[in-house]
Design goal:
This protein is an alpha/beta fold. The chain has helices at 3-17, 26-39, 45-52, 58-68, 79-96, 113-125, 143-151, 164-170, 182-185, 224-237, 290-293, 309-313, 320-341, 345-358, 363-375, 379-392, 397-409, 413-426, 431-443, 447-461, 466-472, 478-489, and strands spanning 101-107, 133-140, 171-174, 177-180, 188-192, 210-215, 238-246, 259-263, 268-272. It has three domains: 3-68, Chemotaxis Receptor Methyltransferase Cher, domain 1 (Orthogonal Bundle); 79-272, Rossmann fold (3-Layer(aba) Sandwich), CATH 3.40.50; 290-489, Serine Threonine Protein Phosphatase 5, Tetratricopeptide repeat, CATH 1.25.40.10. The chain has 22 helices and nine strands. It has a five-stranded parallel beta sheet. Strands 3-4 form a two-stranded antiparallel sheet. α16 packs antiparallel against α17 (397-409) and α17 packs antiparallel against α18. Bound molecules: S-adenosylmethionine. S-adenosylmethionine is lined by residues 17-19, 69-73, 77, 108-110, 114, 140-142, 145, 194-196, 216-218, 247.
Length: 490
């Protein structure tokens, strides 16, 4: 197979499975194709390709894909993600799943270790598991892998780093191999399934209504477009309060308009942003509430204005189902705000994550979420939130202010100064910019500029809204800020 033929072959595989072979695979794939050509009685590469496209080569496709796919996997792969399931996802599901039913999809499960690991963790975490209806479905395109998964016995390689205690408790031995015990196996089923789906297509109805989808180390081998179609499918297949777990290198694939990343102890998981079916949407969904506050007027972040979260909470909606959803969600924002003011940033962050997962947040809610992230030291998330604010309203000075804080943290003082000035360009009375500029100039030995900035800040502080000051300054009162200005100016 020459390089041109290889390029043709890459396209055929992509079309069939979504897998994007790359140039480093050339030698391996070339050898494989030569071998498959001979076995299937084809005389040339082109004859073989024609055969694959003939519609009567399903068995050959199976053999070929088995050899192409990378099926590396093992039990309890990635401790941080296993802990996220155990300590974050399950406690929440246990609390709200009144029907005591949990459905999990291990998509691209390979030989099944991931699906059985999930079953074991569920057993560890759910004390009354016998009264729950659990089903874990493992799927893979590779028939041989699914056969191994169904058989459920594994060699040493699948148990890298698994504690003896777990092995004793959850596995039995057979012919020097280990397999999950009956009470684990009972909840797990395996199916052959090619999860490549087209644009605007969803998964079939038997792949719907999942509480959790694990799809780790699969999409990384896919063409971006195919990965993105699959992620849209996952969004649709997950229940409203569901969770998606991706491999670490796949994080960037989860588009922010489909999933909200939630930071658990030491990893990220994703909650779907469910889009209401269009027939259930009100004519004008009252989600952001913003236009109701100031109809027709571009709402500027003026200093003597409160952030108005409260006002928004009382905005009335005429469409019942949305009101109830909105009310539940808006209470998250209220609680998050109160936790934020009490410096309980972790809990505040969780509330906002929940809110963002189920609502189309407006700029003010995104602003609150970004300030919480900053206080948690999660500047990456703050940046992603501030970009969302910018997308909604590029003229909002607050977003430039947050950019400034992020640059300050990265010690990019010049960029921070530019961002604070950009906020002033949009609102020449933007107190918070003068306040931070005063500090930055002081830090960079521009004493005269610093004094001037603080002086201007002092002239503006009287007009500030108390709550807004506390929000944007991370809890300081007007009096605190006034004292700081005077002290640094001395
Ligand atoms: C590296 S394994 C990942 C196994 C497991 N999820 C883990 O993280 O340990 C990737 C799996 O994705 C499967 N796969 C690749 N393309 C697929 C497709 N289009 N549909 C379903 N599974 C696919 C492969 O067969 C392989 O078993």
């Amino acid at each position: 197979m020459n390089k041109l033929e290889y390029a043709e072959f890459i396209e055929i595989i992509k079309k069939k499975s979504g897998i994007n072979l790359v140039s480093i695979d050339y030698t391996r794939i070339s050898r494989l194709v030569n071998e498959r050509e001979k076995i299937s009685g084809c005389k040339s590469f082109h004859e073989y390709i024609k055969y694959l496209g003939s519609g009567s080569a399903e068995n050959e496709w199976e053999e070929l894909l088995q050899k192409i796919t990378i099926s590396e996997t093992y039990f309890f792969r990635d401790t941080s993600q296993c802990n996220a399931l155990k300590d974050y996802i399950l406690p929440r599901l246990i609390k709200f799943k009144k029907d005591k039913k949990i459905r999990v999809w291990s998509a691209g499960c390979s030989t099944g270790e991931e699906a059985y690991t999930i079953a074991i963790i569920l057993n560890q975490r759910i004390s009354d598991i016998k009264s729950w209806d659990i089903r874990i479905t493992g799927t893979d395109i590779n028939r041989k892998s699914i056969e191994t998964a169904r058989n459920g016995f594994y060699g040493k390689n699948s148990f890298r780093g698994v504690d003896d205690e777990i092995i004793d408790r959850y596995f039995i031995k057979k012919d020097r191999r280990l397999g999950p015990k009956g009470f684990i196996k009972r909840d797990v089923q395996f199916e052959i399934f090619n999860m490549k789906i087209g644009e605007k297509k969803f998964f079939p109805s038997n792949y719907m209504n999942f509480d959790i989808i694990f799809c780790r180390n699969v999409l990384v081998y896919f063409e971006k477009k195919d990965a993105s179609n699959i992620l849209k499918g996952f969004n649709n297949s997950l229940l409203h309060k569901g969770y998606l777990v991706l491999g670490h290198s796949e994080a960037s694939l989860a588009a922010r308009d489909l999933f909200t990343p939630v930071r658990t102890k030491d990893t990220f998981i994703y909650v779907p942003i469910k889009i209401m079916p269009s027939d259930k949407r009100p004519n004008k969904p009252e989600i952001s509430g913003r236009s109701k506050l100031k109809p027709g007027i571009k709402q500027k972040s003026v200093n003597n204005k409160s952030i108005n979260l409260d006002k928004r909470i009382h905005v009335k909606n005429t469409v019942e189902p949305v009101i109830s959803l909105r009310n539940v969600n808006i209470s998250y924002v209220k609680e998050a705000l109160s936790l934020y003011f009490n410096e309980k940033y972790m809990q505040a962050g969780e509330k906002m994550d929940n809110f963002l997962a189920y609502s189309n947040a407006g700029t003010e809610e995104l602003l609150l979420a970004s300030l919480i992230s900053i206080n948690l030291g999660d500047f990456g998330k703050a940046l992603s939130l501030v970009r969302q604010i910018r997308q909604k309203d590029e003229f909002l000075p607050d977003s430039h202010f947050i950019y400034g804080l992020i640059h300050e943290n990265g010690k990019n003082y010049e960029k921070a100064i530019r961002a604070y000035k950009a906020a002033l360009f949009l609102d020449s009375d933007y107190f918070f910019s003068y306040f931070r500029l005063g500090h930055l100039y002081h830090k960079t030995n521009r004493k005269i500029d610093s004094a001037r900035a603080f002086r201007t800040a002092l002239t503006l502080i009287g007009r500030q809204d108390d709550e807004r000051v506390r929000l944007l300054s991370g809890g300081f009162t007007k009096k605190n800020l006034e004292d700081i200005c005077r002290k640094v100016m001395k």
